[in-house]
Amino acid sequence: MAKITLSKLRHSYLPAPTSASDYALKEIDLDWSDGGAYALLGPSGCGKSTLLNIISGLLVPSEGQILFDGQDVTKLPPDQRNIAQVFQFPVIYDTMTVYDNLAFPLRNRGRDEATVEKRVMAIAEMLEVTEMLDQKAAGLSPDNKQKISMGRGLVREDVNVVMFDEPLTVIDPHLKWKLRSKLKELHQRVKATMIYVTHDQTEALTFADQVVVMQLGEVVQIGTPVELFERPAHTFVGHFIGSPGMNILPCTFEGEAKIDGQPVALEGPVRGTPNGKTEIGIRPEFVSLSDSGLPATVTKVSDIGRHTVVECNCLGHKVNAVIEEGAAPHKGDETHLAFRQDQTRLYVDGWLATDPE
Fold first, then answer.
1. Which pTM value belongs to this model?
2. Residue 33: domain span
3. CATH number at residue 103
4. Core-most of 147, 179, 286, 343, by most CB within 10 Å?
């Protein structure tokens, strides 16, 4: 296990990059503590797999350093970094038994059979595959194959970091929650540093203690799942995390925020003098239907079980409200929207520009 430090890291796939747009990864500075559970979250093409490949040694960055416990490993090949990687498609040997698949990484490094058996049995028990140890891997279901692939990454005790690259993409949806729960349990038991790459917010937020949200090669926010939901540092985070995502509404700001001339109270003071594109961000969970506030017309009502999502046209803008209890409105109803003040934030050029009272 290791503390991982990324220092002034940048990468371009072009031989002679000249501008920021030439870089797949903009400058990144990160510290991941020894034994932590982390997620890289973002849409396809945001740079998260490039970053994972740089950490693993499959790519050498154009600029910057990768440090494991303070040791510079930037130029070291993968086999000298003591890492384990679990890929989207299970990497196992179909002709081997489950036992031999789990034992392979240890035998490949010359461990004695007593050590091999001890570690294989321990990991098999954690994964709940002890009864399968004598089976050929070819006959396993996709979720059990991925379990074995995870086990191959966890069986070594000298691993600095275990990295998961979209490991549940090919798993049936009804089995994903089982593997997510198992992976979280495994981290708590083995205490290895783990980095999980995904575009799925549910996977990231249920696995990680800290989530790194990426967009267009940049890290836009690092935080706990609660921090990302409650105080998105960027409108992209607000929109990307949550279902439905944060309402983002264009506004003006001259001493106070206004939407089409209607004043809107913010959570607290605005930092400096806003100079750029100004927007108001508020989660649907903190929008309520009211007798006063911003005028709106209900355009859609979706009952999704635990609550109802009410979509409204508010001064020409789409606004979602989550209604927990009570009678739901109907399409076409005229109403007003009230924003909970302590959850109403101002963003300037996408970045959070207000502080709480």
1. 0.86
2. 4-230
3. 3.40.50.300
4. 147
